[in-house]
Amino acid sequence: VESGIVKVRTQGMEFFVDDTLNAGWNTITYQNDSQEVHFILFDLYPKGKNAHNTKNEILPPFDEGMKLIMEGDMENAVAAFGKLPKWFQEVKYMGGTGLISPHKIATSTIYLEPGLYIMECYVKMADGTWHTSHGMYKEIIVTKEGTKMEPPKPTAKIEISSTKGFVVKDSIASGKQTFEVDFKDQTVYEHFLGHE
After folding, report:
1. Cβ-based neighbours of 147, under 8 Å, separated by 6 or more
2. How far apart are CA 113 and CA 102, in angstroms?
3. What is the pLDDT of residue 141?
4. pLDDT for 111 beyond 60
5. Binning pLDDT at 50, 70 and 90, where does residue 192 land?
6. Given a cut of 70, is residue 134 above it in pLDDT?
């Protein structure tokens, strides 16, 4: 497989993908062969943290909090999310794919720094549980060896900011497009993510 070309497949609640990727620009092709809607997000974990920490320190507060939300108990849900470890605020979200319908394929090109990642899908199910809680996360090591891939050439540019919202820099023609998205600033919201 060519360095920088990453093939990911899902049949249920799992990711079939290489355990090790190279740093730099990577083109992710995600084939969703399941009956569920999914997506991919690459979470760059702080040094010393891994999938064991996800299972034992991240999933329990999220599961407890969402269960309480589904029961209408917002006060205790907020307290449950308060049990997340402090290091969780150091996780860097590096991108991924958008939502992918069953039996569809999505392609996204993202830049990955070296380090340990958790690749996850946290689509919420009707019962309030997350796909992540059903095992849809995988530890990925990104090595210092670079891919030598260049970033894709955009046909349209979008800026996203907390003050101006979405700003389209170019006119967008109909048809297939390659978007460059520039996050001008980031604010972490109560759902623990920024504008992505």
Report:
1. 3, 4, 22, 23, 24, 25, 26
2. 30
3. 97
4. yes
5. low
6. yes
What does the radius of gyration of the chain's CA atoms come to, in whole angstroms?
18
- Among 1, 9, 3, 2, which residue's Cα sits nearest to residue 119? 9
* Residue reference for tokens 């497009």: 177
- pLDDT in the model for residue 165: 87
How far, in Å, CA of 137 to CA of 125, rounded?
Answer: 15
Cα separation of 140 and 144, whole Å? 13
What distance in Å separates the CA atoms of residue 37 and residue 97, rounded to the nearest whole number?
12
CA distance 21 to 10: 18
Token code pair at residue 146: 């670079």
DSSP state, 176?
A: -
Identify the three-state secondary structure at position 74: helix
DSSP string, 46-98: PTT--HHHIIIIIHHHHHHHHHHHHTT-HHHHHHHHTTS-GGGGG-EEEEE--
Q: Copy the structure tokens of residue 182.
A: 């520039």
DSSP state, residue 72? T
pLDDT classification of 195: cutoffs 50, 70, 90? very low
Query: pTM of the entire structure?
Result: 0.87
Tally Cβ neighbours within 10 Å of residue 90.
12
Q: In the predicted model, what is the mean pLDDT of residues 145-150? A: 92
Q: How many helices (H) and strands (E) does the chain have?
A: 3, 10
